[in-house]
Amino acid sequence: MAAAAVTPMMAQYLEIKEAHKDALLFYRMGDFYEMFFDDAVAAAEALDIALTKRGKHAGEEIPMCGVPHHAAEGYFLTLIRKGFRVAVCEQMESPAEAKKRGYKAVVKREVVRLVTPGTLTEDSLLEARRHNFLAAYTEVRNEAALAWVDISTGAFHVMPITPVRLSPEMARLGARELLVVDDADSALRDMAEDSGVALTPLSNASFDSTSAEKRLKELFKVGSLDSFGQFTRAELGVMGAIVDYLDITQKGKLPLLRTPVREAVSGTLQIDAATRRSLELTQSMAGGRDGSLLGAIDRTVTAAGARLLERRISGPSTDLTSILDRQENVRFAVEQSRLRDRLRDMLRKAPDMDRALSRLALDRGGPRDLAAIRNGLAQAADIAETLQGDLPKLLAQATQDLTGHEELQQLLDDALIAEPPLLARDGGFIAPGHHPELDEARTLRDEGRGVIAGMQADFAAQTGIQSLKVKHNNVLGYFIETTAKHADVMMSPPLSETFIHRQTTANAVRFTTVELSELEARILSAGARALEIEKQLFEGLRSAILDQADTVGMAARALAEIDLACGLADLAVDQDWCAPQVDDSRCFTIVGGRHPVVEQALRRQGGESFVANDCDLTADAGAAIWLLTGPNMAGKSTFLRQNALIALLAQAGSFVPAKSAHIGLVSQIFSRVGASDDLARGRSTFMVEMVETAAILNQADDRALVILDEIGRGTATYDGLSIAWATLEHLHDVNRCRALFATHYHEMTSLATKLEGADNATVAVKEWEGQVIFLHEVQKGAADRSYGVQVAKLAGLPPAVVERARSVLEKLEQGERDREGPKALIDELPLFAATPAPAAAPAAGPSEVEDRLEDIHPDNLTPREALELLYELKALKKS
Question: Pfam families annotated for this entry (predicted)?
Fold first, then answer.
């Protein structure tokens, strides 16, 4: 195609698009962002907007679509959720400025930002109560490392890791985007697909540790990283890759990142992705927050407090000191009920300072972000004043971090109005009286007529001409007008030295003065001048905040810590939770334990109360395993999960739903509960079950807590029993962990007599008139039967099917008792002769009582007649 066939604007578009092939290019055209060619086709379909055409390229019409620039954020969010990236291309000059370079000059445009899943900062694009992590992973020889950052809050972390730990850690973080080297293997891609994270390949140069170290030093303005910790080459590589990617996507405007915190894998309770799904920690099986543990326990009143709670639940600590310190915070808030309620009322007024800081650092902030810092610091000061006296260690430190911002707070108080507008370009956010020149410009802008009227009075007094007027038109601007008979006075000395003749008309003569001309210029530019002054003041306030970003960030984190303590305390008091005893022992004793999510659901429904149960997996040494039997629907899975959740809550520093609890530190929680398949990878339900079981048996250590439900049920009876049997023995003999093992294989109950650390328990039921009643009580001992047929009846299977199943079951059980086995009975069972459905009973005619009721009109009966009628009907029924 000849270059001449391409318009200058389209040539510019194609050049910019060539540099951003992997993103949809939002090309600014006045009040719209427009997209062309394949971008337009893809965007129109994803956003459900009209696809039109604009001009021709290479002889074919150019597809085009567009969205209003003021509503672009909503479209960004839709595209990001559908897997797209967006390159935002802005006009860097006005059309008038472009014309100065030539009549056909194209307005200069540049990509100012790449919008990707891990680099969002706007409130409208983020969930206020959740982090939005961008992560990076690499392997260097025998080392591997994972780093992650939330640019909306500045949190920056790194940890050494083994490849097998990547998936569990990504599940813990819930990162939105993962940076990897561009030759990432299929295992990484499978992991990304499983966890729902967007995979972004970068060149090896981005992960180079030497370049990374230089980037980090420049970012944090230090000569050495030693003060931050000792980092491996892999750790430096992933941190450097994140900084490099942020530089690329933010076009040089790096966010306000905190110094990197190095985490140890052993510092948090290890929970793999399957266990997180099974326990529904932060997301229910249905995919939402409702029904999850986080949704049930979140009583925080600030966004930062909610994000802190999610971090604690996603990664409970294994450091005993940290656990006890956090628990002491909650205990203090439980005991100080009036103080707690007062603090929660104050915290409700605290804005999200972390995210306001980040937007200001990226130059995406506005006056409301300034106000958020002002209001947040004001609440911090009030809360610090309220929190006095003898405080727990963490609360005392948090209280100290809330103070020391008086000068900045006063500056913002003096400068800002109470409710600023969203955008700095709108103006009107600086308080009157803060800046004299701004006040003057506003007066001229808003009260120009009054100023002119005052000047007119001055001119009239000076000349003695009371009919003198100051007027305005589009040709002369402001001018002084008088009648012809007074003109000679103004054109004669000494007034002629002040009043300059401009124009003579048939009926009037017009003059101006130097003062009036200067005032006219100021009035005409007053609006623009006022806005310019406000922008300068905004930049000054922004700089003042960023100069104290570290201490402001500490205050924001202190507010989150206080909010979390008060929220967990409010939950504990309202739900009657207890303070668990957590220590370094092998103890695991829970009295009256309850499932927090199920219990709350039952309360909302106004139905039956939750049946609490005890659990004791204490062992001085070796394994401690309960083999749990009982029918489906009896509550085995709930019992398994609730004990895992109680351990997790205890190590998150929370109170727990029980009468009492003594938890020896748990290093890992593994859960294999529920059945599902993975059709995309060709895995059956049984295959998924075996993969997850293998991961548990290969990884669980002697401080792990393992909950397993119905291992082996996805295959033939004897195969399944054999696998379940061997799994239990391995947990006992090799892993030597604490475990709850639920099964329908009653044959396994004999293991309790053979394995020293195993014990039988069952969920009690009661039979009444052929019906099974679930008591939901866990007791020592083994179930005598499974009650599967009764459960099938409750589920609504046709009566004929239920009866047939009962008869087959009786024959199979008789065969087992006679040691004939099921196979010997197959020929005796007419398996293809289903019991016919019972014939419908003939419809009965109306009874004598019904006939009598037809003739009765209750409204016409006296009390005595009604009583006599009741006796009559009773006699008829007996007859």
Answer: MutS_I (PF01624), MutS_II (PF05188), MutS_III (PF05192), MutS_IV (PF05190), MutS_V (PF00488)
* Angle subtended by helix axes 514-547 and 436-446, to nearest 10: 130
Q: Tell me: do 785 and 673 sit in the same domain.
A: yes
Query: 565 and 460 in contact (C-beta within 8 Å)?
Result: no
Tell me the binding residues: 630-637
Mean pLDDT of 674-699: 73
Looking at the structure, do residues 135 and 242 belong to the same domain, yes or no?
Answer: yes
Q: Are residues 529 and 666 in the same domain?
A: no
Q: Residue 477: which H helix or E strand, with range? A: strand 477-483
Query: What torsion do the CA atoms of 391, 392, 397, 398 make, to the nearest 10 degrees?
Result: -80
Phi and psi at residue 26, to the nearest 5°:
-90, 100
**Residue 822 in this model has a pLDDT that exceeds 60:** no
Whether residue 410 is contained in a domain is answered as no
Q: What residue numbers bound the domain in which 325 lies?
A: 298-405+548-574
293 in a structural domain: no
Q: List, in sequence order, the alpha helices (H) in 53-120.
A: 72-81, 95-99
Same domain, 622 and 724: yes
Section 412-424 average pLDDT: 93
Query: For the segment 348-395, what is each residue's pLDDT rounded down to a tens digit?
Result: 999 999 999 999 999 889 999 999 999 999 999 999 999 988 999 999
The identity of residue 415, as a single letter, is A
- Residues whose CB falls within 8 Å of the CB of residue 455, separated by 6 or more in sequence, listed in order: 470, 515, 516, 519
Q: What percent of the chain has pLDDT over 90?
A: 57
d(CA 469, CA 481): 5
Residue type, 577: W
Whether residues 663 and 554 fall in one domain? no
- Split into its structural domains, the chain has a count of 7
Element (H, E) at 704: strand 704-709
Structure tokens at 206: 């981005």
Return the amino acid letter for 79: L
Whole-angstrom distance, CA of residue 587 vs CA of residue 624: 10
Whether 878 has a pLDDT exceeding 70, the answer reads: no
Asked whether residue 146 falls in the same domain as residue 40, the answer is no
Binding-site annotation: residue ranges for ATP: 630-637
Kindly report the CATH number assigned to the domain that includes residue 451. 1.10.1420.10
Sheet containing strand 60-68, strands side by side: 52-57, 60-68, 32-36, 24-29, 86-91, 109-115
Residue 217: inside a domain: yes
- Closest by Cα among 773, 699, 712 to 741: 712
Distance linking the first and last C-alpha atoms of the chain: 104
In-domain check, residue 590: yes
- Looking at the fold, whether 651 and 752 belong to one and the same domain comes out as yes
H or E element, residue 797: none
Per-residue model confidence (pLDDT) at position 689 = 83
Amino acid identity at 222 = V
Written as six digits, the tokens of 483 are 């009648």
Measure the CA–CA gap between 276 and 194, rounded to whole angstroms.
13
Q: Report which DSSP code applies to 703.
A: T
Distance of CA 81 to the CA centre of its chain: 14
Instruction: Sheet with 588-593: list strands edge to edge.
Output: 581-583, 660-664, 588-593, 613-616
**Distance (Å, whole) CA 610 – CA 596:** 10
Residues 368 and 507 both lie in one domain:
no
Which CATH number belongs to the domain containing residue 590 in this structure?
Answer: 3.40.50.300
